[in-house]
Amino acid sequence: MINIIWFFILSFGICFGVLGGRGEEISKAIILSSDSTVKLVISLAGIMCLWCGVMKIAERSGLMGRIAKIMKPILKILFKKAARDEKSIGAIVMNLTANMMGLSNAATPFGIKAMEELKRLNERKDEASDDMSLFLVLNAACIQFVPTTVISIRAAVGSKNPAETIVPGIIATSVAAIVGIICCKVMEKYF
Hints:
Layout: H1 2-19, H2 23-61, H3 63-78, H4 86-100, H5 104-121, H6 130-140, H7 148-156, H8 166-190
Helix pairs in contact: 1-2, 2-7, 3-4, 4-5, 5-6, 6-8
């Protein structure tokens, strides 16, 4: 549906621009924006490769494992059924750890695996369990210690200090995660 909406917005804009005598300006704008988009994507690819390499080093050095060990006891308190199942809690830990390090691309397979494991534990297959809902909230509002995507985008567009968003990001994502957990736990009591 969103593709159809965008198609009509662009089509109407181009038609009105051409009918209004601004066809040449529209052509120049399309070419310039295409050029800058390609440059941005290429610079982002390089920066993302660098961050993925750094995170792979963190994973192989055992840093990710240490973070996972710290998180496991906390998550066992938060999740009811998943806490008793090593497969599901393991997938949850890996997903949240990858998200904390800003590797949402690496976190996606772990998130899918965690949701499959939580579905396996769910007794009512036609609706989400409390653990599934809490996982979705934590996945969406995960604390980010290193927001690699934001840093990469800021670096690609020429920011003088691309990493200056780390502290505000940690504060904002921590508050979001805490509020999300509180809301989930309150809703569990009533629904």
